Amino acid sequence: MPTRAWLRRTKPLAMHGSTLMLAVADETTRERVETKLRTEIEHKLSDHAGQVTHLAVMIDPSLVIETEPAVEEQPAEAAPAAPSPIANGGTRTAKGDDKLNPRYTFESFVAGSSNRFAHAAAAAVAEQPGKSYNPLMIYGPSGLGKTHLLHAIGHYVRSYYENLRVRYVSTEELTNDFINAISDNRTAEFRRAYRDVDILLVDDIQFLESKIQTQEEFFHTFNTLHNSQKQIVMTSDRPPKLLEALEPRLRSRFEWGLMTDIQPPDLETRIAILRKKAASQRLTAGTQVLEFIASKITTNIRELEGALTRVAALASLNQQEIDLTLTEDVLRDLMPDGGEVRVDAETIMNMTSRYFSISMDDLTGASRVATIASARQIAMYLCRELTDLSLPKIGAKFGGRDHTTVLHSVRKIDGKMGEDRDLFNQVTELTNRIKHA
Ligand SMILES: Nc1ncnc2c1ncn2[C@@H]1O[C@H](COP(=O)(O)OP(=O)(O)OP(=O)(O)O)[C@@H](O)[C@H]1O
Could you tell me which residues belong to the region Disordered (predicted)? Predict the structure, then answer.
């Protein structure tokens, strides 16, 4: 095989079962490997290993950073090429899709040293559901991409294995479904919904702790799926052995397959994530700006993305370019003490109700009066930005609202901040007060 320059920008990552994970620097290289080399590589690997071996190709932009001089500005991302394995996991819209966020695909996920193993394991599972690691458990602190990978697996499988049934569920929904099924005498239906699937993706499994009956039911669901080689993937904020209020037999089952953690990303990965996000939103933000944000926000990617959104919102309101001065101003407001501060939902809700002079009952109630509804949406948005609470948990704090209502509020405020200066100022001022509370 002749040595081609672009081949130097590829890197074998790991062997997962019978799949070789190969990282490439960019979409062009991936396409070349897929179209020109896949068959040859797979044949050679299979000969060498004495068994059928597959290739999974993924994009790792850090390979560009490692091998090429830094560029000042990244052009807006090209339109996605024709779908192909892993790298383009979410570019096809999944049929009948319900709960998978279209933004959370393998293609939009940046692999770096902090998440490389989790990414590779998720890719292996998506390539060959039920045949590599089962169950796969991805754990780590909030806001680091666990849900993103779970959805990416779902999108990928729905796109490339049309006959496989995928079910994604948060543990809160699973628990509610189960409770409703019991009270409505529909447990058989519940079981069918969760056991007649080929891939079950369960988010935030730590919320099963202390829920004895749901644990019992999940134990049987797990066994049924596992015995018939159906894929189970779970996320958790802790490794199974630290899920102390979980039945030991469940904990040990969670450890059967592969457990992989996700750590906070290093500086290069944070910059690469911001760059990708900026490109996907067609924002022109120079390297200096991205580096500045990435140097200030280090532990939570949700917050990292939130900061870029706010910078973009202010630039849009001021009708100016995103530059360092503007970015510094926004981050000063966002981080009054120069660092990341996590707060609790109660503080956010109290401060919001005081700021808008409305009662807590109104904030959590059903009133559709514009000022109250807007305050409620801002409070939900800030809970998502400043706490580690999941969408269902935030919904529960706001009078038992559905997680989709919370998501709608978050997106609405996100979108409106770049158009409505009053709203931008309110959110900024309120954030500041909350962080000083
Ligand atoms: N490596 C990555 N590349 C691109 N985006 C990322 C990456 N990691 C996380 N993100 C983004 O950061 C945000 C938070 O990620 P996600 O919701 O998956 O976190 P999580 O670990 O599931 O957190 P939680 O436990 O709070 O649910 C999402 O918008 C996600 O797309």
Answer: 70-99
Closest CA to 206 of 232, 240, 250, 256: 240
- 278-320 pLDDT, tens digit each: 999 899 999 999 999 999 998 899 999 999 999 999 999 999 9
Instruction: Give the whole-angstrom CA distance, residue 385 versus residue 368.
Output: 23
- What would the two tokens of residue 371 be? 């000022």
Which residues approach ligand 1 with their CB closer than 6 A? 104, 108-110, 115, 142-148, 237, 273, 301-302, 305, 388, 390
HSE-CB at 327 with a 13 A cutoff on CA atoms is: 23
Query: Domains in the chain, ordered, with CATH?
Result: 5-59 (3.30.300.180), 106-261 (3.40.50.300), 267-334 (1.10.8.60), 345-436 (1.10.1750.10)
Residue of 33, 38, 39, 35 lying closest to 6 (CA atoms):
33
Ligand 1 pocket, mutate which of 115, 144, 394 (most atoms under 8 A from CB): 144
List of residues 6+ apart from 77 with CB closer than 8 A: 276, 279, 280
Phi, psi of 21 (to 5 degrees): -90, 120
Mutate which of 151, 301, 303 for ligand 1 pocket (most atoms within 8 A of beta carbon):
301
